Amino acid sequence: MSNAAAASAGSRPPPRYALIQRLLHWLIVVLVVLALAAGGTIGFFGFEGLRDLFGPAGTDFVYTTHKTLGVLVLGFMVLRVLVRLGFGKPGYAQPLPAPQRIASQTVHALFYVVLLAMPVLGWLATASGGFPVQLFHIELPGLIGRNEELSEVLFLWHGYVAYVLMGLIVLHVAGAFYHWLVRRDEVMQRMSLFR
Q1: Is 107:168 a contact under the CB 8 Å cutoff?
Q2: Is the dihedral of CA 144, 147, 150, 152 positive or negative?
Q3: What is the pTM (predicted TM-score) of this model?
């Protein structure tokens, strides 16, 4: 490549995801962090512990918030899949080495699976336990009949998937910092809301 071509290529902005993809990414990040915080609070204290600590109204608030966040994550993830199918994925300014590319593709694919499966498991676990599935205080269809044994299994898997999600978040953030601080490439700008 000539010096002029290299200079021209160097001045071009890096390939980025479409604005709607970047907005959905960061919106889902916020929703997931809040859902994990609410779910962690429920898991740590349990129903009785929450009632002792926050009273009935506070306990209802934590549970309703967690359910609402889960429903929102599911809805925005479905939208994200549709947007991804429509807009695709931008290339890289500099191709990633094969191991990094494979790791990146694997983590991203697992994120999609986990962020769709986890709220579905929570929805079905809640409904089969005889509890309302809520978006704010609007009750949504349960989609499944009451079955307490099934509910226990689904809640267990909902929790396991939460641990997988937290592991994926650690890997994703570590990869982002690696690109930002070690490689000093333009990968971080692909999903940034800012230039």
Answers
A1: yes
A2: positive
A3: 0.89
